[in-house]
Amino acid sequence: ATPLALLKNGESVDTMKMLIGTTAGTIGETSVIGNHVRIFQGVSLAGEKLPPDENGNAIRGVPRHPVLGDHVTVYSNATLLGRIRIGEGATICGNVWITEDVPAGVTVSQQTVNKCQWTVSEIGEQRTKNNQ
């Protein structure tokens, strides 16, 4: 596949960030992408709804998209929603929906999220216990 990503409202991607076979992926305008990050096809770095001002009009430019640390890998069709932080070296497996922070070095997959019914925080705690 040709490297391609839909970048919204002036977002740019540095050449050190790898968009691997990305087709129909979306990177929101306030996303922050660390160095040596790999993003595969169909990934959405999506934002929460724009907050309203006192007149009910949407306030633009408010940071509302994910922040990916260095050396993060996000596999196909993952959706990261909101101003969440994905820690350095974390791996987000394919076809997952992430709405909370992921600690550094943690791997999040459908198995860890669905079968175990753990939150991402609990996955990080379990990983720490297993490595002791």
Order of helices and strands: EEEEEEEEEEEEEHH
Radius of gyration over C-alpha positions, nearest whole angstrom? 15 Å
Shape: globular
pLDDT < 50 stretches: 1-12
Task: Tell me the major beta sheet.
Answer: 5 strands, parallel
- Count of DSSP strands: 13
Structural class: alpha/beta
Strand content: 15-25%
Count of DSSP H/I helices: 2
Overview of this protein structure:
With 132 residues, this protein is of the alpha/beta class. It is 13% helix and 23% strand. The chain has two helices and 13 strands; from the N terminus they run βββββββββββββαα. It has helices at residues 110-115, 120-130; strands at 6-7, 18-20, 26-27, 32-33, 38-40, 44-46, 67-68, 73-74, 79-81, 85-86, 91-92, 97-98, 107-108. Strands 1-3-6-9-12 form a five-stranded parallel beta sheet, with no helix packed on it. It has a five-stranded parallel beta sheet with strand order 2-5-8-11-13. The termini are far apart.
Helices and strands in order, then pairings?
Elements (H helix, E strand, L loop, with lengths): L5 E2 L10 E3 L5 E2 L4 E2 L4 E3 L3 E3 L20 E2 L4 E2 L4 E3 L3 E2 L4 E2 L4 E2 L8 E2 L1 H6 L4 H11 L2
Short synopsis of the structure:
This protein is an alpha/beta fold. The protein is built from 2 helices and 13 strands.
Key features?
5-stranded parallel β-sheet, 132 residues, alpha/beta, disordered N terminus, 13% helix, globular
